[in-house]
Amino acid sequence: QHGELVFAQTPFYAEGGGQIGDAGVIEFEGGVNCVVSDVKKRAGDVYAHIGKAQGGAIRVGDTGLLQVDGERREKTKANHSATHLLHAALRDVLGAHVTQK
């Protein structure tokens, strides 16, 4: 089942500022896990981990071990930095009217 999981604390970065959210796995007792494909910031400091449960059901109150896909995060960080460098170069060549949204 697809759904969103919310935790009191998370090591996952949420989507924002032109950067995609982290991916990874949340492991629960009994062999149940959730494969996280994205993280979005909701109202306030609420972070929704979007993913698909495997191996059983996840219930309110279950505790999980949150594991970020480190390789993907490093690639995302590099891509995000490269985007900023490209944007700066485009502004230098084409002018201040070039914007990044």
From TrEMBL:
GO terms for cellular component: cytosol. It comes from the Bacteria. Keywords: Aminoacyl-tRNA synthetase, ATP-binding, Ligase, Nucleotide-binding, Protein biosynthesis, RNA-binding, tRNA-binding. Residues 1-101 form the Alanyl-transfer RNA synthetases family profile domain. PROSITE patterns: AA_TRNA_LIGASE_II_ALA (PS50860). GO terms for molecular function: alanine-tRNA ligase activity; aminoacyl-tRNA deacylase activity; ATP binding; tRNA binding. This is Alanine--tRNA ligase. It comes from Marinicauda algicola.
